[in-house]
Amino acid sequence: MKKQKNPVVPFYVIFALGIVFITAMSFVGMDQKNEIAKQLEEGDTEDVADAGDFDPEEFAQGQCIACHGGDLTGQGNNPSLVGLSLSADEVKAIIKDGTDAGMPGGLVPDGNLDEMVDYILSLGSEDAGAADEDADANAEEEVEEEVADEADAEEEADADADADKDAEEEAAEEK
Ligand code: HEC
Fold first, then answer.
1. Where are the domains of the chain?
2. Domain 53-131 classification at class level
3. What's the pTM?
4. Distance 103 CA to ligand 1 centre (A)
5. Which protein residue's CA is at the shortest distance from atom 12 of ligand 1?
6. Which comes out higher in pLDDT, residue 111 or 42?
7. N or C terminus of the chain with fewer C-beta within 10 Å?
8. What angle do the packed helices 56-63 and 9-52 form, to 10 degrees?
9. For residue 96, which of 105, 88, 86, 87 has the smallest C-alpha distance?
10. Residues with CB under 6 A from ligand 1
11. Which of 67, 71, 113, 123 to mutate to test the pocket of ligand 1 (most atoms within 8 A of CB)?
């Protein structure tokens, strides 16, 4: 009788690949979960700080950058807030009431609207730095944090890539 190839082997290979893939994906998921938890924590501390004295820049970092981009220069369909040629009243009305085109109103507490308007209108203007050195210092800190976060993200991406490579190697060994 002719010796037949074991027909079950391919199933083992698929099974092993599946396990490896699921394990890899759960590591990816854990990374993402940690990141989200970290972001939420940072958001919370910002809210607490806001309750005391209002820092429009910090508030914007918490509430506006998701749509308007990390440096508020806009992203996708969301316009830049830097160097606006709108009047203070117009900006105030937009921030207070929102627009039909996707800008949500009511994000900034009424009592802090003027400070937020001043801050937004100071973005991109020459003397913004002189007007608010504190804000500049904060901005630098935040940039540093962002750079650190990016480095973290890269590390995580590397780890993911390693996991993928491991998975591939294991798969190769199975064959
Ligand atoms: C959910 C996404 C989202 C968030 C969050 C958001 N915006 Fe907007 N914003 C938009 C969109 C979309 C527009 C464009 C709306 C339009 O064209 O009518 C806009 C427009 C604006 C404008 C008018 C810009 C222009 O050139 O017409 C200002 C000012 C503004 N947003 C300020 C803010 C501030 C301040 C915050 C944080 C407190 C904020 N936005 C948070 C989506 C958002």
1. 8-52+156-175, 53-131
2. mainly alpha
3. 0.55
4. 4
5. 102
6. 111
7. N
8. 150
9. 105
10. 60, 63-64, 66-68, 77-79, 81, 84, 91, 94-95, 99, 101-104, 107-108, 116, 120
11. 67
